[in-house]
Amino acid sequence: MIDRIPKTPPEIKPVPDQIRRPLWSVMIPCYNCSSYLIEALRAVLQQDPGPEIMQIEVIDDCSTDTNVEALVDYIGKGRIKYYRQPENVGSLRNFETCLNRSTGQYIHLLHGDDLVKPGFYTEIGQVFTQFPEAGAAFTGYTYINEQNAELYHNNELLYETGLLMNWLLDIGRAQHIQPPAMVVKREVYEKLGGFFAVHYGEDWEMWVRIAAHFPVAHNPKRLALYRVHENNITSRYFLSGQSITDAMTVIEIIQAYFPKSEKKRMNRLAKRHFARYFSYTSDKIYHEYGRPDIALEQARRALKIHFSYTTLFYYLKIFSKIRLGYKMERERKILYRPLNFFR
After folding, report:
1. Phi and psi of 163, rounded to 5°?
2. Same structural domain for residues 267 and 221?
3. DSSP β-bridge partners for residue 185
4. pLDDT digits 0-9 by tens, 264-275
């Protein structure tokens, strides 16, 4: 039986010579996200340059919420290919299947609950033309909720399109990218392998790995939309506590990608960042999810990862709320800024 979480980067095999290759592969992994998948497919089809230039394929990890194949046929009218896993294999193995089934030069791994705005593929294509040495390129992006309302934007990295300088040390401290914004050359995945080790933070590890081997380019236009909702992996892993465990695993893995002189500093900076992040989000868990036990444990673990005024403050804040029986306001509409690895 195959491991759902690969211990090493899965092999991504080169495309056989006899296969005619398009420029783009838009690979859409999905699992029980049919209510969002329709929008994702329509957003891609609106920018479709034709099958000779773009492969579009949905990789379904045995969804149970609807007949995904029928949905894809209805929306795509034969334009979108569909593949269903023989059994549920988990997100990492589903990503691996996406990458190995892709045939294009550029791979856009667009999760089924995310979106891209008009112009995304044109803009990224121009980035690769302008900076052919780049192994990957990404745009700016915006967080949205279940109703497509904008929550907030990414932090600006560049004011105009260009290569990111000192990117390895920058991305190694904290995550700056969400998956719908990123496009990677297939040859990069062929050299470095696929996603592995964790379900939470697997994309961060990949972006750091790519930065250690290839230049990365960025277009600051916000042309991708990352959806925040309670049923995605990020939310589930927060409530289980697995998010902290996985983040610490990634921090240890990526030390191998840094110069020897930077390893200790990068380890310290990453732990400080995530300790603060998990401290902040412990308050959200207390109020919006109504789970004071999990909130306190997360704040405690954050304090243990990196002791600071911030981590101590949030631990004492959650502890005091529990002791005082502070009301959990799950019904209150909070304009939450989902930090997701940000500074």
Report:
1. -80, 145
2. no
3. 106
4. 999 999 999 999
